């Protein structure tokens, strides 16, 4: 739901009369989301949230980053570790220590000297995909998806329609409102802007103690090479606006004073505050979501002269919003 | 040439012995670029650079953003305007006034009240594509590209290889080291991270006085809907790290004090400094460039367990570097 690239005067106009135009204009991604019935939204279990509080900024403003953990069957070895690390308050006192433009912000224990909690261990580096049949919602729709894809490819091969493919997989879709890629019976969560993954060494899948968030163009080449364990659903700007580290150190801040202290990381269900933050997402099995994807791929509002007729998986991030506290 | 997502200890190791491993390791994007002969690099004419100096940051550090203007046959109506605006020093005293996370940083005259220089006029909104035949380098290779693409689609349709397509066009390639998309005889420059485009109103193509740079995932839906006029080749971090504006104003800073003053914008050829900044790019018609794309799409270094077998056009930005002054 990004605003179009309109000039300042039109921005003002748009802001002055948001309601007036609504009835006559074609649907936009924002209008589809606004019209989605309550039943199309699903609450995120607070136990599946990771809430990271950074030290306040120079002006004293709090900086909270909220991450949703990826559901089964993906990356559950690391997600289990991450729950243990949060419960042990392991990240408290660590830092965001590396920021690379158009790449990632990375955090954890820069010295890798801090002892890990009991039961947190290196995961193997071959658990980056699940089987298509392990993903119930997709598996239910598998026949339809496969037939549609085969028919689409036939139309493309015959020249009846232009190709609209994915550069990294046979095709992409959504599972439980997570972007996933599918190929040869495998399915995996994709690296998009805001995705959270596990830094690792060669020959290991890492533990999940060193994490990064994507702050640039989707680095899809990391798919199936690193565990995607979550996505930032609020506060990504507290990571994406951080000063970039030097090129010569691969973006690791040279001076300890440049690191951004992490005050605490907690599971949403263990936050000592009332009300706890509550979020909901638009269900990817709903008609509203299908409409949302369609409208994003085929913009009909007057600004768009050439609707794209396609969209890449990382440009159609599922709508997620706060549930107002009662 | 982004570093892999390796943990801090391995980063240190890598930094400690960069040369030792070089001989035995498979090629990486960085090693291909480093090995490219001088003849594969082309100098950018300083007249095709737009050099924007922002006010220094809070610590007094200068902030220079260098933009390369897109060559013919693309967007030349706007590029002509932009040359005139720079020559008239029109942007001096204007500001970066809008920043939206995972979207753009936008600059110009926020009030749109400043008179435009003689000869700078609104451009039509139907000049976003060129004909395939207007792009000499592509046209020369057109037969080969078309045959390769047709053969690829046949293999895909027969199930012999997985599809690797583009989500927004029939296919993508490079022309003069610019990323372009091709479909139905049309070719256009793509919106990638760092691309610079022309903000406009509905019903107009804009003048080029209000510009934006992409600071997030490639907004390819803007392709063919907005003029791409250039790309940031140095200093994107001075835009991408700026504080984001409020959602309620579409990212426009509410307080004038938040705007980032633009001290000056000059064509590279008109900069009053010696030496003038000099840049070169890896020629997309060279074997080095072909190798670079191939290696980026098929990573063989030990970190990559599953080479992607494809790459999207915005993940293979052409190498551009400074020419050291003599």
UniProtKB/TrEMBL annotation, chains A, B:
Gene3D superfamilies in UniProt: Cyclophilin-like
Alphabetical UniProt keywords: Isomerase, Signal
Pfam families: Pro_isomerase
Molecular function as annotated in GO: peptidyl-prolyl cis-trans isomerase activity
Cross-referenced PROSITE patterns: CSA_PPIASE_2 (PS50072)
Source domain of life: Bacteria
Ranges of residues in domain PPIase cyclophilin-type: 45-267
Signal peptide: 1-21
Protein name, entry field: Peptidylprolyl isomerase
Organism (species): Croceibacterium salegens
């Amino acid at each position: 739901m990004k605003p179009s690239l309109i000039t300042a005067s039109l921005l003002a106009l748009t802001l002055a009369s948001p309601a007036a135009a609504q009835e006559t204009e074609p649907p936009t991604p924002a209008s589809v989301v606004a019209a989605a019935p309550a039943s199309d939204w699903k609450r995120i279990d607070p136990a599946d949230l990771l809430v990271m509080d950074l030290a306040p900024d120079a002006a004293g403003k709090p900086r909270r980053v909220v991450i949703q953990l990826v559901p089964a069957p993906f990356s559950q070895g690391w997600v289990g570790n991450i729950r243990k690390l949060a419960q042990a308050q392991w990240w408290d006192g660590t830092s965001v220590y590396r920021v690379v433009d158009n790449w990632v912000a990375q955090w954890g224990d820069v010295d890798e000297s801090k002892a890990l909690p009991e039961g947190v261990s290196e995961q193997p580096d071959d658990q980056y995909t699940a089987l298509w049949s392990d993903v119930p919602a997709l598996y239910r729709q598998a026949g339809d998806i496969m037939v549609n894809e085969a028919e689409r490819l036939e139309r493309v091969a015959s020249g009846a329609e232009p190709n609209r493919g994915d550069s990294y997989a046979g095709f992409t879709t959504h599972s439980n409102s997570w972007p996933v890629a599918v190929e040869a019976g495998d399915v995996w969560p994709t690296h998009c802007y805001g995705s959270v993954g596990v830094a690792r060494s060669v020959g290991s899948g890492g533990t999940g103690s060193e994490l990064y968030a994507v702050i640039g163009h989707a680095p899809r080449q990391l798919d199936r090479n690193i565990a995607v364990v979550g996505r930032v659903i609020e506060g990504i700007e507290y990571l994406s606006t951080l000063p970039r580290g030097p090129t010569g150190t691969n973006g690791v801040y040279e001076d300890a004073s440049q690191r951004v202290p992490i005050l605490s990381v907690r599971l949403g269900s263990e936050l000592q505050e009332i009300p706890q933050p509550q979020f909901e997402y638009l269900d990817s099995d709903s008609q509203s979501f299908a409409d949302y994807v369609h409208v994003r791929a085929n913009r009909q509002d007057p600004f768009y002269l050439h609707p794209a007729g396609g969209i890449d998986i990382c440009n159609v991030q599922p709508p997620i919003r706060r549930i107002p506290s009662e």
